[in-house]
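Section 5.1 Outputs to date
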Amino acid sequence: MSAEAPFTCAFETLSPQERYKLLCAAIVPRPIALVTCVSADGVVNAAPYSFFNVFSETPALIVLGLQHRGGPAEGGYRPKDTTRNISESGVFVINLVDEALAEAMNLTAIDFPPHVSEIEAAGLSLSPGVSIPVPHIAEAPVAFECRKTVSLTFAPQRELLIGEVVRIHARPGLVDPKTLRFDLEAYKPVGRLFGNSYARQSDRFDLTRETYAEWAAARGLAP
């Protein structure tokens, strides 16, 4: 009996939807950025993004993949509220999502009109910004106040935002102020999978990273 052949496919032969399906199903779990920003009219907007991660510690940078609305059939693409607000103000907050915040985060993904605040619709509350004039979600376990560094456009529908973290807020009991270590049992972060699926981070294991000298010594090799 022959073994099943591995799956392989050139991405250039796939539609955008097919590429999205494979990328999102394979690259999991992804952290979730529940982004808060403020419109020119003073409305606080909140929207979740899982095309998101940390990029650098010096400077402290995060990267965020932003998607525009519309398409060729709708007369072109137009920026969503988050993209437009950050472009105008240059500041935003990344709120991280835990198990307790997951339901409200999902609700903020509804396509509300610009004059409706997702914060109010989701029954969330806000705490004022300190280093920037953007509030963070009081119920979020962790929040990063950020300033826009640069925005890169790769396609009419996709934009890459790089922001510098200028301040962190963390719920009491999450971070040891002396060691700066997180208590993951208290944190309970949630990861994005694909479709309607998410993952808890409750099943973890440790792997100790050896130095080359330790690896060589364990095998009787000269370092």
